[in-house]
Amino acid sequence: MPPSFGQSLSPESSSSMFSIPPLDFAGQHKAEKIMHTSIVGSSVVGLALGFSLGSLRLVYTCFFIGVLIASVATIPPWGYLRMNPIKFVSESVFDDDAPEEAEKKTQ
Q1: Which of 77, 99, 71 is nearest to 28 (CA)?
Q2: What is the b/e burial string over 18-53, where b = at least 16 CB atoms within 10 angstroms of the residue's CB?
Q3: Angle at which helices 56-74 and 25-53 pack, to 10 degrees?
C-alpha cells in the first residue's frame, strides 16, 4: 500500500522486514560514473569494431552488452553503493526548536 499524503518515507518507518536501505549520495554518484563509463566505452568499442569489420549488427551487440553490464552493476542497490548511509533527523528536533524560534521572532 503506498504511503498517504504527509506520511514519512524514511527507512526507519518502514515496517517491512526485508526492506533494502536506499542508495546514498556517494553511491548514486558512483553508479552514474559506472553507467556512463560502461555505456560510452562499449559504444566506442562497438563503433570501432563495427566500422572496421563492416557490421552494424556488431555495433548494436556491443552497445547492448554495455547497457546490460551497466544495468546489472547499478540498478540493484548493491552493498558498494550503500557505504555512506544517510542520517535522517528526527521530527522531535524540529518540534523542540519551534517555541524558541517563535520567541526570537516576537522579540
Answers
A1: 77
A2: eeeeebbeebeebbeebbeebbeebeebbeeebeee
A3: 170
First to last CA, the chain: 46
pTM of the model: 0.63
Residue matched to cell numbers 553490464: 69
Instruction: Give me the count of residues in the chain.
Output: 107
C-alpha cell at 19: 526492506
C-alpha grid cell, residue 56: 552494424
Tell me the CB-side half-sphere exposure of residue 45, using CA atoms within 13 A.
Answer: 12
pLDDT tens digits for the chain (107 residues)?
A: 455 444 455 555 545 556 777 788 999 999 999 999 999 999 999 999 999 999 999 999 999 999 999 999 999 888 888 888 877 777 766 665 555 655 565 66
